[in-house]
Amino acid sequence: xxxxxxxxxxxxxxxxxxxxxxxxxxxxxxxxxxxxxxxxxxxxxxxxxxxxxxxxxxxxxxxxxxxxxxxxxxxxxxxxxxxxxxxxxxxxxxxxxxxxxxxxxxxxxxxxxxxxxxxxxxxxxxxxxxxxxxxxxxxxxxxxxxxxxxxxxxxxxxxxxxxxxxxxxxxxxxxxxxxxxxxxxxxxxxxxxxxxxxxxxxxxxxxxxxxxxxxxxxxxxxxxxxxxxxxxxxxxxxxxxxxxxxxxxxxxxxxxxxxxxxxxxxxxxxxxxxxxxxxxxxxxxxxxxxxxxxxxxxxxxxx
Length: 303
What we know:
Elements: H1 2-10, E1 17-19, E2 24-27, H2 32-35, E3 38-44, E4 47-59, H3 70-76, E5 97-102, E6 125-126, E7 129-130, E8 150-152, H4 154-162, E9 176-178, E10 183-186, E11 194-203, H5 236-243, H6 249-256, H7 260-264, E12 272-273, E13 290-297
Parallel strand pairs: 3-10, 5-11
Antiparallel strand pairs: 1-2, 2-4, 3-4, 4-13, 5-10, 6-7, 8-9, 11-12, 11-13
């Protein structure tokens, strides 16, 4: 039921066209009233919230200025202006962070392709079970509105190389892949739409990946922790705690389902890693150049 509900919810966005410029935006509609109907789910202080998108996303500064491999970045910019790996949280004034939690333990299925193990709807799959995230992968029927279809990341390139792929996949440039499936976590709510900068959180312990509808966690792999679900990732404090919590559950999950992402990072001992970020707060540095525009209100996102 959860997967079906998310499929219906995600398709409310209708048809969109992606354009790529030096600062990429999504032309979802010429009507502001249409944009205001675009919604997704999120977590706030261990509860669920609704995100109401009110303006096109923006990727700034341009990825070609962010210090990436110049050849890769130039090739990637033909397909996307959005990147993960570094960013400038002040590129758009008065933007707080939205933390994007990605079930990296599900391996390459997070990128939504059936050939990589994803569900037909574009959700990740772990141990033969669909993980219905708040947003499915970019370009799938489960993708969220006002999100880029593709992202570039030097970490994606490392995963490619780990797999022996030298020229990218799906006819995309090296380091470019669909936006991975993910959930959202924010630190406060409000009725006014504001810009939010994205901070990516890679989750390697499936025991703390919340149910996208309820926000609650269930133990799915063996753990050596007294409370395997204690750092359920539905709040900023939980993300901070998970960054410093080591557990055998990450290795147990990798043994359940081989994860090139886990292997690329040399085997991850902590429940999550947040590349380039040492502390979770409203002033956390950006590890992406993606800005989303929405308001977060405290209500059930699926009413």
